[in-house]
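Worked example 3. Consider a protein that binds heme C.
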Amino acid sequence: MRIRIMIGGALMAALSLNVLAEDQALTPAHNALNVLQSGEVSFSRDVMPIIQDYCVSCHNPSPTAKGYAKSGLDLTSYEGLMKGTKFGKVVVPGDSQASTFTKLLTGTNKGLKMPMGLNASGTLDRQYILTLRKWVKQGAKNN
Ligand code: HEC
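Given these inputs, the predicted complex is written out as structure tokens:
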């Protein structure tokens, strides 16, 4: 039992390292990744649905939404995302490494990781992370 748990942990670690590794190494098996292989990522078509599913529950303008209450970050719209938190911007157009919005998805900010409390590994699916990163790299447009 204990060994199985350890193996599971190692697998998780390997998977999340994999996420960090290469942006471009996408295989045809990842069908959902068409958007990443071809052209431009669209905010409304590709990015917003991910945010809706994984972020808006805590980042909407209501006092009971934990993320909004604590940081002021409203992810219900493009404008809210670009405005950032009460401390400052979370998107640096063109630079996904410098953007807190995408940095926190792989947990590089003092252990803070988003979406908070998602699952055991606490990491968004690889293809979603890559989609969000690519959108930022392409200039974080309202497209
Ligand atoms: C279960 C609730 C929850 C979910 C879901 C969630 N967040 Fe958060 N988020 C928080 C909380 C709470 C904070 C404030 C953390 C703090 O300041 O300690 C926060 C803060 C943030 C910040 C600001 C961090 C900073 O440096 O000030 C960003 C950016 C962020 N979240 C992005 C996201 C993204 C992107 C998603 C979806 C992929 C997401 N969050 C999903 C709860 C959540």
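Take a moment to read the result before moving on. Helices lie at 2-21, 34-37, 43-54, 66-71, 78-83, 100-103, 126-137. Residues 2-137 form one domain.
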